[in-house]
Amino acid sequence: MVLPGLLEIAVLLSLVISGCLGRDVLRKSSRDTAPSGFTFTGPAALDTPLTLKIALTQGNPSGLEDALYDVSTPSSSNYGRHLTKAEAAAYVSPTSETMSAITSWIRLNGLNATTMTPAGDWISIQTTAAQANTLFGANYNVYVHESTGKQVLRTLEYSIPEELTSHVTVVHPTIMFPKFSALSPVFSTQPKQRTQPRADAVVDPVGASCNSTVTPACLRSLYGIPITPATESHNKLGVTGYFYNWADRADLQNFLIEYRPDMSSSTTYSLETLDGGSDPQDIDEASSEADLDIEYTVGIATDVPVIFISVGESNNDGDLDGSLDTIIYLLNQDSPPQVITTSYGDWETDVDEGMAANLCNAYAQLGARGVSLMFASGDGGVSGIQPISCTTFVPEFPSGCPYITSVGGTIGTNPESGVSFSAGGFSNYWARPFYQSTVVPEYLDYLGSTYSGLYNASGRGFPDVAAQARNFEIVTGGITELASGTSCASPTFASIISLLNDELIAAGKPPLGFLNPWLYSTAAFALTDITSGNNPGCNTTGFSATAGWDPVTGLGTPVFSKLKTAAGL
């Protein structure tokens, strides 16, 4: 895709690049030092190639939000009338003034630019460290990640030319450093002795065994999930994978043989890749995270086509880049999966606010187009994704984004309880959305002055819902293990929504799309309220689950039959 009028301009004028940069510049962003784990090695070689991604100011993001809620709120006359790709993109397309300013700047500096999104709100330019330093008042250096040895180019500050200050929101990569681990989306894994399939595996009622380990049979009994095969081939469920976390088809086959003997053991998933992603079928390279996500989507959403989206690192150097490239990839698709589950995230404070806002608006575009986005809430209680040393509670990204559905974790049966690691809290970036206008103030009244000053009481609360999250039996690397984390909960909830979508589409109705306005209104009765458990962290006992919404288990766990009724089936 080419930015109109830009790539056609192979600027041949020999301009002195600093000619347009002698003007005043506005300090855009800075940080004092590189984050822990990175070591400065020296200035970047001036001729080092560098691809910069630039987010242009979006034309009408508030209009996009209005449109999203209009098609996602059951009381609206437009409920379910999802937007097309072009209609959603039109809301965030840069204005003609922005396009004129960026085009002039690119022409003057002898650059070429490529559009990255249907809206044209992200462009990329190929440059060098020397030119980037001049263009943005930066000082690109080489930093080494101590535990992996990987090198990255980053600057501790950058500026935006004065003529672009109202037209550019983010330049990346600049001051945001990558994370070279997945922040362990699986809370823990441990080996388990393999057993032969039980004769009652398909209809195993909720019993003592489900309190110790979780299988598809347990989840079906606990949440009433049907085993009737889906019928709509164009209803798809996407599973994202990062950090060399690859699923293994042999592991899936063994999983189905043991835990879904009623299904064909040849049932599998399709693969889509970007940024050099792959899915090598080597038993030694099987990932417990990817196997978990695939086995509990294929194994629960019976016969729903599952797509494993494997994101490599050829065009990025960390999780944020991978997330950005994934959303750009999905925005460019004419028919993205109707449901997407992601078990990865970041601490909100580690994501530049402009970048976070842009990504969140991209999620809104997909939601307006009828896509349900589910993210694991994280595994560190009120400390964020994982337990860290902290003095205030750490919200998680993208769970704080109001346009996605955040899934927390539970444990046990009869009744379920919030699991201790279920991340939850309140965003510092986004205000409380309208669909939480009643339930969150009720929780804050219950909380009173407890933890005053440790969290943003006016922020968007998360998670929205929850599901089982401890001791899931998986097959990975040819052996059975137990896996725990909200990485278990998100694929489970996503599978339930995919099964509902299958029935909706078969009935000639639109898919559910962005879930939250429906979950907090029409479907609230279809969730089992979880009233015990807490999520400790930051040297506190964390928030407590209680009657109504809470920042441990959200609105509660699913009851399929009631959700079906709420969906009008």
Automatic annotation (TrEMBL):
It holds the Pfam family Pro-kuma_activ. It is found in: Secreted, Extracellular space. InterPro entries: Peptidase_S8/S53_dom, Peptidase_S8/S53_dom_sf, S53_propep, Sedolisin_dom, Tripeptidyl-peptidase_I. Keywords: Calcium, Hydrolase, Metal-binding, Protease, Serine protease, Signal, Zymogen. It catalyses: Release of an N-terminal tripeptide from a polypeptide. Its cofactor is Ca(2+). Transmembrane segments: none annotated. The active site is at 289 (charge relay system), 293 (charge relay system), 487 (charge relay system). PANTHER family: PROTEASE S8 TRIPEPTIDYL PEPTIDASE I CLN2, TRIPEPTIDYL-PEPTIDASE 1. This is tripeptidyl-peptidase II. It comes from Rhodofomes roseus.
